[in-house]
Amino acid sequence: MLKPSIAKNDRLANWLIGIFSLVVFIVVVVLGKFKLDVALGFDVHIFATINAFVNASIALVLVAALVAVKRKNYELHKIININ
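The structure corresponding to this sequence follows.
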């Protein structure tokens, strides 16, 4: 088994994750109430295309990590997920 790369501090991590999640949720809800009618001068749908590209890239990396685990190559799996 591989040694952990990062020391665990579960209690602090749980608090930080919970607080961050709550703050992000509140900000998203509040910002959802506003609508800006601004002419930006370019097609804003380019952001959806960029998002699709990022999601597809991440999906490929996750599949590569899964294949590494299935082949019991845990070191490669660790490298793929951390880098």
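DSSP finds three helices and no strands in the chain.
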